[in-house]
Amino acid sequence: MSQPFPSSPYLSGNFAPILMECDAPDLPVLGELPRALRGTLYRNGPNPQYAPRDAQYHWFIGDGMVHAFHIENGRARYRNRWVRTNKFQREQAAGHALFGSWGNPATTDPSVLGQNDGVANTNILWHAGRLLALEEADPPVEMDSESLATRGDVDYGGKLKGAMTAHPKVDPVTGEMVFFAYSVDGPFTPGMRYGVVDRNGQLQRLERFEAPFPSMVHDFMVTQNHVLFPILPLTGSMDRAMRGEPAYAWEPEKGSHIGIMPRNGGTAQMRWFRGAACYVFHVMNAWEAGNKIIADVMQYESAPLFNPGANGEGARLCRWTFDMAGKSDSFTREYLDDMPGEFPRFDERFATLPYRHGYFAFRQHESSARGSYDSLAHIDLRSGKRAVHVLPQGDAISEPVFVPRAADSAEGDGWLLATVYRGAQARSDLVVLDAGAVADGPIATVQLSHRVPFGFHGNWHGAD
User: Fold this and answer.
1) Share of the chain above pLDDT 90, in %
2) What would the CATH number be for the domain defined by 9-462?
């Protein structure tokens, strides 16, 4: 029998799951949706089907639910569906949770020990004709782009055995999808994998290498000629988990290690740079300038969420610079903005290339829920100017997704799409803003009658 959800910060307010799948064929719109905006915004996030088995539930481990907003001819429709992973289906058949947090065997039902416990809850990406629901510990899961029916795990003809990152990078020039995975030899192990899927959906490269230590490596960087792997001191340990302690913990004495390898080379050519401890969940962009590699990241001084001693300061946009012609193994760091924020995005037609415009969510109101964001920023990296849109108190905004006005539009000429939780009404909207006039607020608001729980990432797929 299904049990009530326990009291927990990550199961309350708009972190709480919605226990329904639904369709809304024609949603109310305030303002006017641009006629040139044609396609679907897909968003993914944790939405646990059943109350967790563990006493301490973490937001990162809920079952994935995909939310789709299709926009065409000035109208919008909505659909949501759970990703029907092995975990989801086994627990649905049982009528209650079976798997422990982070695959912990001490809290997993013996009937499912050793089975795939992936939740596919972090990102949703279109590549080579497939819609892929992603999380970093398991294979991609393909979903039907219209019905959101789950089609099953993607292993690229049996070549991919195991996980793929939640943050693959699609090269806008070659169409390649570049990816990695960590803990490839089992939970909390230092083995890593690097791979490339070509524009036709064929897995072309797969290589293994060893990281300096087991780390939660959520994101990475890709330039036209290099790949960068940040191994930061948020470490994983099965011994800790088995003792009932946090599986992931902050160990700053290990420092930061950034592995850089050539895309046309191999992992044997990896070069390691080192620096003081920091943590990065998300990368804005990375590119090359002569002999230098530059990466813009949202950097924390210490890891949040997993570090009880964290100072509470958020991530700030920081530029890392690596001199590939020099002999030093150090790199420089320079903060570009003093506004703490998260979920950085940009015009991804400029992925791996020099760029000018970036966008991120940030927290302005003291009263906003911990872990949520109530404002949106646009930073012009050439002028250093920042424009912001601040929501009313009690509301919260998702990661902004950039959509170009046309395929050949200038960089930054387009719209930002984000979901907004309306705290006073306990429901959500989809907002559309002019990316060049963020401070003016939404030009169109699509209204839902229910909540879209706080999630992680989304992407736009334009209509054919």
Assistant:
1) 88
2) 2.120.10.30
